[in-house]
Amino acid sequence: MLPSSPPRSWLLKDPTPRRAYNLASELNLPAWVAQVLCHRGYADPALAQGFLEPSLGQLPGPESMAGLESALKVLVPAIQTGQVIGVAGDYDADGVTATALMVDFLRQAGATVVWDLPQRLRDGYGFSPGAAQRLSQAGAQVAVTVDCGISDFEGVAAARDLGLPVVVTDHHQVPDGPLVPAEAVINPHQACCRFAPHLAGVGVAFYVAAGLRAGLRQVGHFGQRPLPNLRNSLDLVAVGTCADVVPLLDHNRILVNEGLKVLNEGRRVGLKALCQVAGIKGDLDARDLGFGLAPRLNAAGRLQSPDMALELLLCQDPAQAAHLAAGLDRLNRQRRGLEGEIFQEALDMVAGDPVQAQARCLVLAHPGWHRGVLGIVASRLVERLGRPAMLLALEDGKAVGSGRSLPGFHMQRALAGLAHLLDHFGGHALAAGATLAAGNLPHLARGLHQAASQQLPSLEQGIGLELEAEVGLKDLGPELMPVLERLAPFGPGNPEPVLACRGVEVGQASLVGDGHLRLEVRQNGRRLKGIGFNLGARKPSPGSRVDLACTPRISTYGGRHLELVLEDLRPASQL
Predict the structure, then answer these.
(1) Is 335 within the bounds of a domain?
(2) Whether residue 575 has pLDDT greater than 50
(3) pTM listed for this prediction
């Protein structure tokens, strides 16, 4: 029997009637929206106003970024004297957008630029000695990394041996011990840096470009040359930030919010072409970036070379952009096919192994699995089974793969605690990767199981589903849509609110797609449609009453309207 989703415990947060009432009155908000803001730390009206109306004016300048001054000492004179700048990025959407941003900015600043992106199967992750060699052969005299480099000691050392000063810009966790031997290191996770630790790699690149623009302006570099307008780069920042699943709070919230405005202006022909092949129409939101554009940009690096994605982002010709976007769409379809096969194989492995069935963190390995899709399959396993998961491909005595986690279990730190088993590892709290000898896999599985067991609830307890407020259908009409737009963009750190709605009557219920549930519910004269993904087995009878755990969402399918996305449902009065 295939493993099923774990039970979900509904956890209704305590109401905050006085604070919510005051906030709702002050800002003219629905009571439940005010309660959500209070739960998320925005009970103060001024803070809530700033959250609901993010703007570029709220961002600090880049001056306080640790390492920026050292970076300017390398890059400003290099640009002024006409040295060739080499930009080294990563193969995922964050790395590709960061590379495009930096290449584009340097060109606008008058620099000659070459770039290099790694191929996943040839180079592995990060700034490798091979990347340093390729940049040198292309004529680079200075190297700048984006979205990589912080743990790439061999690559940085190789670049320096080739005579290339290196400026590292990255956002991944900083390894213990000395920093890489670069002329400058910019990474908000450094202990000495207090600047926006949740930035994606492309966000760091944006701030570095802003600091470099200021440095060049100070020495009079631009003169008759137009000053680069970094606002036009915010479309790239928005795509890379949403793709990398970093918290959409503070700087990231502002950058994505403003980046969506730039995207919807249609300035970048490559992204415009990508929207067309993805079937995205109208104004884009954060979900469109994370589930429409990012997978197609990622597909190139997952299955072949990320160069096609970078060429699309830098492309100025609509016909060429359409050709490149079509190629990325084809690769994305191939990716989905591979992903589906491996996902089913992984589920079968869990179902057939009593040890894995009880493991608090899944560790699955198989020869022939394609490394490029293991991270996304791990994400699907986490969603399906409610457990952290690490999937690895077995190749020539090595295991190479990616892991995904749940809030409460820091995957990168767990791997750091098992570093003696690993040849290489890196990543974030919720996403990490590792390479190790295949013989060490049982030890890795035991270690991750023990770490996850200490930090996460037991499997019997299930996953807690936090409900932020209780509402009736009367609170969820079309007049709510402008308020939801102000709460957006949604993502990690600022999720769509999940609400309890009790005792609604089921009007219609049907199955759609592959096991999804389509409902129409009614209460006190109001009717709303809802969709419950993977809830088809829970189909209620028409006329029955149910309690819903649901998220109100603006849908544009069949005309702009409000619909309910069902997280869970059960017979009425069982909350």
Answers:
(1) no
(2) no
(3) 0.91
